[in-house]
């Protein structure tokens, strides 16, 4: 029992993913500042932002809507992010954990934060939050199908293994999946899925600060918004870690491989950051067309190539 609590709360659970996620958030903001010819924030700024929301800012509840649902949505999002982190990080750390089918469970767990944000926005009773939630719902319908096709492709490449630890073992034996044509195509599709899951430009239309004033988060403040901020830090770490696991052979903690393992995460986050800073926000119908047509087509082509051994 104590060991389980340690794993959930300390390592590789809440504390570990929070610290790494906060540092990656700083990396994201620092690269963004460099692209925009600014100095950027200090390394601890993400943690200052979280503590300010947690300890200083007042929690204001909306007069309309369901207060319990409104408050529980960030809690559900955070719990799902932590559980996803455990399922992803245990195999990456070389611990034989998980179970047959945990890849499918991960697909559902990684979708819960977006669902929770949507439900929380609808529960606030704010019209602008409802618009943001509506956009989030349409965006989810679009990118989740592409993400499912990516996972299906990974399962096929792994010899029909549906356990993350087994997928890593297959890559250790045969080489990283990204070294094949189908692996590259699936990786490209998954990068854009991550961009949408994280709500980053060009797929930030659900928040769109200049249009709908932060969308489904408009009524959040204080502690609930601190939990949302914390969930976003965690997702910025575990989603790239998931891509490293299913495409790049995971982590190795011996010698120079330690540096290479860190660079894998940084490269994925760097790609997400550069996409965010070199593209404008697109309309929701454009995003849906992009995923339904082009990304799904890319994933299907990759799946066909897998059957030909490419």
How would you characterize this protein structure?
The protein is mostly helical. The protein has one domain. 71% of the residues lie in helices and 0% in strands. It has helices at residues 2-9, 14-35, 45-55, 67-92, 102-109, 112-123, 127-157, 164-174, 181-197, 209-212, 222-247, 257-277, 284-307. Helix 3 runs antiparallel to helix 11, helix 6 packs antiparallel against helix 7 (127-157) and helix 7 runs antiparallel to helix 9. The longest helix has 31 residues, at 127-157. It starts with a helix and ends with a helix. The mean pLDDT is 91.
Radius of gyration: 19 Å
Q: What is the averaged pLDDT score? A: 91
Q: What is the end-to-end distance?
A: 46 Å
Q: Percent range for helical residues?
A: over 70%
What are the salient characteristics of this protein?
13 helices; globular; 310 residues; single chain
Short account of what is shown:
The chain contains 13 helices and no strands. It has 310 residues and is an all-alpha fold.
Task: Give the topology, please.
Blueprint: H1 2-9, H2 14-35, H3 45-55, H4 67-92, H5 102-109, H6 112-123, H7 127-157, H8 164-174, H9 181-197, H10 209-212, H11 222-247, H12 257-277, H13 284-307
Helix pairs in contact: 2-11, 2-12, 3-11, 4-6, 4-11, 6-7, 7-9, 7-13, 9-11, 9-12, 9-13, 11-12
